[in-house]
Amino acid sequence: xxxxxxxxxxxxxLAVSAAGAEGVFPRPExxxxxEFSQGQSALSTRDRQALAGIAQTLAPIPAGRITVQAxxxxxxxxxxIARRLSLARAAAVRDALVAAGLxxxxxxxxxxGRLEPPADIAEILPPGVPRATPGTR
Length: 137
What we know:
Number of helices: 4
Structural class: alpha+beta
Strand order of the largest sheet: 1-2-5-3-4
Oligomer: single chain
Strand content: 15-25%
Order of helices and strands: HHEEHEHEE
Shape: globular
């Protein structure tokens, strides 16, 4: 059932990718990646539009949790800065997905802080897509 929903959503996913939605890209392993400018957690209008399409893709899937995990490339000597920024990024992505119709109780967020190699991203992992292991992309 889940597989059929994802296959049915493929045209929308390709449209989001083809539209060149700045900062939001499909991950080869499944799910999506949102890229941020260094030190920022705000989403652009185009990012919000792409996330709205993703929310509409995920909403019909009746079960399973969606994980939003975020990283930040903050200073290596102060882990709390990167942790706070990664939390703000994950929350911003979750809030955009919820504003577009995804049920809030289905979305978990993970603030990963600064990992090696450093990255300024958030990843959306739908049900059935394993969490990325820290340090791999």
